[in-house]
Amino acid sequence: MKAREISYAGLMGALSIIFLFFASVLPKGNSLFYILSSVCIMIIVWLYSIKLGFVAYIVVSLLSLMIVPNKLVAVLYILIFGLYPLFKAICERGFPVYIELGLKLLFYNVALIILYFVFKIIMKEIPNFKFGIALTIASSEVIFVLYDYLLTLILQKLKSLKIPWRGN
Prior knowledge:
Number of domains: 1
Organism: Caldicellulosiruptor changbaiensis
Shape: globular
Order of helices and strands: HHHHHHH
Keywords: Membrane, Transmembrane, Transmembrane helix
Helix content: over 70%
Strand content: under 5%
Number of strands: 0
Protein name: DUF2232 domain-containing protein
Transmembrane segments: 6-25, 32-48, 54-84, 105-123, 129-155
Oligomer: single chain
Structural class: mainly alpha
Number of helices: 7
CATH topology: Arp2/3 complex 21 kDa subunit ARPC3
């Protein structure tokens, strides 16, 4: 890895931490900050490599556990929002669209199951779902597909820009 790659990954990692901190302390708009933290990892993967994106993800995950006041925000980042851009980059490297979507939904559902058990361990009690757990999961999957589409649109917009400092 070159010094420019490492410094850029450090900058994006710092931005991710800032976004996670905002998601932790601001009650409204935390979804926006989760998405922005994902975009930081996605930019590293796009500009340089999945390997550097993974290193940045690990560093941001560890720092978020130490710095971010609300540990739930850190756990959500570690399980979904930080890891997903890496998984997305791997899935979009040659799989047919239907397999790609199936793998992405599988990733999300596995992350939800892990999140469920983490909540159960930490909180000792799972909140009651107003409309039932099946409807909650189904609606969250729709939101996840929209999140994936939004990341795709952001990446397409970034690719359309003429960025002279692109690492590849």
